Amino acid sequence: xxxxxxxxxxxxxxxxxxxxxxxxxxxxxxxxxxxxxxxxxxxxxxxxxxxxxxxxxxxxxxxxxxxxxxxxxxxxxxxxxxxxxxxxxxxxxxxxxxxxxxxxxxxxxxxxxxxxxxxxxxxxxxxxxxxxxxxxxxxxxxxxxxxxxxxxxxxxxxxxxxxxxxxxxxxxxxxxxxxxxxxxxxxxxxxxxxxxxxxxxxxxxxxxxxxxxxxxxxxxxxxxxxxxxxxxxxxxxxxxxxxxxxxxxxxxxxxxxxxxxxxxxxxxxxxxxxxxxxxxxxxxxxxxxxxxxx
Length: 294
Hints:
Layout: H1 2-10, E1 35-37, H2 38-45, H3 49-57, E2 73-75, H4 76-83, H5 90-96, E3 98-100, H6 101-109, H7 113-121, E4 129-132, E5 138-143, H8 144-153, H9 164-171, H10 177-191, H11 196-204, H12 209-215, H13 219-227, H14 240-249, H15 255-273, H16 279-287
Antiparallel strand pairs: 1-2, 3-5, 4-5
Helix pairs in contact: 2-3, 3-5, 6-7, 11-13, 11-15, 13-16
InterPro entries: DUF6397
Region (Disordered): 1-41, 272-294
């Protein structure tokens, strides 16, 4: 009888003395947070696909853990944070609003198309994206809010003669728009990860292949960097002819720009190689779908 009583006690039904035993405390809820796909998260925030992609690019909406296939997922807590911001949703839409091309950009800036183009080519305005039109020409996208801020901050740039440095650049047929966009693109990608190998992969992604081979002679490391390379930005075309035009925008070209990214990659690799995670571990984790200058 005593053995049976002890068995009943261990099952939580009663003590050996016949007194009711306390039930064990329930285990804390260890279920992972609900993760939403990009399209569903965009719908719940009331944003169009392009608006949502721009919000993610700018860090206004932060992605959560990635899905097994590498697709971005978003927690409901993050969506709640975005909805709780002051002025939502109009303020968010205004921050991600873009204008395309010189005509629309000039209207947002309050000046003429030729002056807008000059300001952009000389590096006073930084594109946030691009698209390739049917004539395979690059159409640069700008944040409307940034153009309005520039107009308020630099009214003297909207009229009058161009400064000497701008005239020199125009005479040399310089165009800083691709370089300025790359600097912004890389900077935004680096802000989204603290993983040393992912940061190195971002820097390697804008370097010509020959430069990457020189900086990373180990084939195993190059495989890891390629596996962790960021996907093309939103709006990158799928049609081969247009993709070839857009692909040239992704790679640094001027020698001083190439040198800047090459030096940054060398520095990033030094830090990555000093971490516990080997390249083999990075490659193995990536195979399961995990993703750790103007």
